[in-house]
Amino acid sequence: MNEQPVKVKKRIDVLDVFRGFAILGIFVVNIVIMNSTFLNQDEFAKQWTSGIDQISNKILQLFFYTKFFPIFSLLFGLGISMQALKMLEKNKLSFSFFARRMFILFLFGVLHIVFLWSGDVLNLYALLGLLTTLMLKKSNQLILILSVIFLFFPFYDQLFEYLFNLLNFKPEIYLSEYTGETVNQIIKNGTYLEGLQMRLLEYLSNIPMLFGFLAPVAISMFLLGLYLGKNKIYDSLDAFIQKVRIPILIIAILTNAYRVVFLFVLPNYAIYSTRTFRPIFIKLMVFSDIAMGLFYLWGIGWLWYNTKWKFILSPLKYVGRMALTNYLMQSLIGLILFSSIGFKLYETLSPSVALFTAIVVFVFQLILSKVWLNYYRFGPLEWIWRCLTYKELLPIKKNNVSNKT
């Protein structure tokens, strides 16, 4: 099949606003990890005892952790479905197209890990995105049921432990010779090649978290996004937001009540630390955080359609239209801020300074994205991704606008 780019349709600004908001939240979380890796994070965090840093930590826990990855995953699944439906209308839908698109995204992920940062999710998105495309022609009911099953399946830890044992894969060995101090020295004073080697080992050591924790959330949200897309929810998003208002608010109240109890009440009781109940408490917290992320999307949508705050939210769309470029740019900025090739700030930023830095960087990205999109139709990496996907050099400058996307 000759796969040609489909004709441009007017972008839905609020979806780009959602993506821009997700990019902000992702960086707020990622900069904490860039500032101190998982290997030394708990020990590093103990030194920040000032009031403003304690408040910053609570802000991160209450409003950022485990909330933006689900948002971006849902939007990714929605994007797949929207593109597939457009191609289906033109009788151009093919699995090979999406396989090539996901393969190119996978390569972006590999380059991201090797050259910038080990905390990549593009590889995971590419693999799970390919699986999601296999569900395009399945019934909406089946897609929704699978989304729920993937989210609430309780035995991922045991499943992946069994698979790793079967494959004799031992991720704990990759960083066994590293300590918090050696990691600090390599990032701040080591060569770029030493940092590259450590990034690869760090990625391998994080595979259990990647596939045991993030993958189930991602595939569940991909399928939910696919379900919403196949129902063309984007054509009547304002009506849908009003329709789900009551259940969304009830879920938000209940899950936020639990989140407050988990963070501020349960740690004072012995049951919080027991081997039997602690995993259950944590799992409920994860579900509550995901619900909070979905509530964010609902809240932004409600403000967009029902208030005068649209002008405040609207600039987020520029970052959202260049989501891939901005996501990888954040890793480049993190490399410059924290490593030996830049300012060597690794394990020097307090929680409050890290939060402030993330916001400043995001404002810079917002301005840069707005300026770029004044002259170009796509972000630079979005354009490369499109060209490689369609196997065609597509126009990028606005004065060369054609009917291709």
From TrEMBL:
InterPro entries noted in UniProt: Bact_Transport_Assoc, DUF418
Protein name: DUF418 domain-containing protein
PANTHER family reported for this sequence: HYPOTHETICAL MEMBRANE SPANNING PROTEIN, INNER MEMBRANE PROTEIN
Species, as recorded: Aquimarina algiphila
Keywords noted in UniProt: Membrane, Transmembrane, Transmembrane helix
Keyword Transmembrane recorded: yes
Annotated TM spans: 21-39, 59-81, 102-119, 139-156, 207-228, 248-272, 284-305, 325-346, 353-373
Presence of keyword Membrane: yes
Domain DUF418: 228-391
